[in-house]
Every structure is written in structure tokens, then in C-alpha cells.
Backbone:
């Protein structure tokens, strides 16, 4: 079993909790209130700006050219995702330049950037891999269940698209290459996955403290 497979399996409980989260289920069937989706788009735009910076830091720290090129390719994928979010924001009347990050968003971005600046490439990919892997998983699962188009169909298509799935597979290969069997690796991966769950919870609470899934 590879490092990335082991990390994913060890956190499958959180992945399933995210998939079954009311926010995700509301996207799945198109019933999520529009205000909650608009809030999410603003928060996710703020998050992705930090995410692409973390990729750039990982590229700069990469010990070889293969990693350098791969991290830049992944950063370009996030920039494309940000373009989509800009289109979403205009449609949902969200001023992405005036977004105030919620506590869960700030906690997640602070964690990512602190890990990127203060750790080696192996721990950086351990912190970043859960986001890509989880969204590809959710996108594929929702795509298989969808029976008709609705308000959030484009979101589901984006994260179930083979191009996005390929990017998630690429960061898993980088995890297998650089994430050494260090004590911090599972903890960092788990924390990032918990942040994903909390990120889905925040739009439902609109600023109220997030609920958490108990850690193993």
C-alpha cells in the first residue's frame, strides 16, 4: 500500500462524514440555500488564494525538477479553479475582494501557509493532498448519483471532471514520492481533513463556531 493510500484509508471516516454533510447533500440535490452557497464561494476563493501560494512554496522547496514542474502544474490548476470562482462570484453577487474569512477558513489557511513555510515538501503535500483527494471523491460520488441538472450541477461537473481527478492523482503521487514515514505526516493529513469538514459546516452556521468530528 502506498503512503497516499494509507493516509486516505486512515481518514475515510472523515471523508464519508464530508460526503454525507448537509452542505454537500444540499449541493447534491440542488436544495442548498443560495445564500449558503454564495458564502461558501467567497470563503473558498479566499482559501484557494492561500492554496496556490502553498503550491508555489512547495515548488520552490522541491528537491528536483520533476517536483518543481509538477507543483507548478498543480498551481496552474488552482488558478483555473479561481477563474471559475470569479465567474461564480459575479453570478452570485459576491465581492471576492471584500471577503472576510470565517474562523474555519482562517484556521485552515493559516495551517496551510505555516506548514508550507516551515516544513519540507513531504509535509507540505501531506497538508495539501486531502483537499484535492476529497473534492475528487465528492465530485465523482455526486456525479454518479445525479439524475437531473439543477443549480449546482456545474460545481459537481467541475470536481468530477477527469482533468480535476488527474490533478488529485498527481498530488497523491507527489505524496508517495516526498511524504516520508514521519510521525507528523498522519497528524498533518488528519488535521487538513478535519479542516475540510469544518469548512463545509461554516456556511450552515454563518459565523457560528463550527462543529467537529471527534479525532481518532
Residues:
Amino acid at each position: 500500500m502506498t503512503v497516499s493510500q494509507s493516509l486516505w484509508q486512515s481518514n475515510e471516516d472523515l471523508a464519508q462524514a464530508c460526503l454525507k454533510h448537509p452542505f454537500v447533500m444540499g449541493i447534491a440535490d440542488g436544495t442548498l440555500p443560495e445564500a449558503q452557497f454564495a458564502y461558501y464561494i467567497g470563503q473558498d476563493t479566499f482559501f484557494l488564494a492561500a492554496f496556490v501560494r502553498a503550491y508555489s512554496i512547495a515548488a520552490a522547496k522541491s528537491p528536483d525538477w520533476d517536483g518543481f514542474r509538477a507543483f507548478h502544474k498543480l498551481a496552474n490548476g488552482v488558478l483555473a479553479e479561481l477563474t471559475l470562482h470569479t465567474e461564480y462570484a459575479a453570478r452570485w453577487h459576491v465581492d471576492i475582494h471584500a471577503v472576510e474569512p470565517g474562523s474555519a477558513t482562517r484556521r485552515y489557511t493559516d495551517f496551510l501557509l505555516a506548514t508550507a513555510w516551515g516544513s519540507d515538501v513531504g509535509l507540505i503535500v501531506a497538508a495539501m493532498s486531502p483537499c484535492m483527494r476529497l473534492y475528487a471523491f465528492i465530485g465523482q460520488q455526486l456525479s454518479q448519483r445525479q439524475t437531473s441538472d439543477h443549480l449546482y450541477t456545474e460545481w459537481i461537473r467541475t470536481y468530477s471532471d477527469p482533468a480535476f481527478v488527474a490533478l488529485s492523482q498527481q498530488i497523491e503521487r507527489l505524496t508517495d514520492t516526498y511524504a516520508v514515514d514521519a510521525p507528523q505526516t498522519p497528524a498533518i493529513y488528519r488535521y487538513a481533513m478535519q479542516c475540510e469538514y469544518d469548512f463545509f459546516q461554516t456556511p450552515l452556521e454563518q459565523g457560528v463556531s463550527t462543529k467537529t468530528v471527534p479525532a481518532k
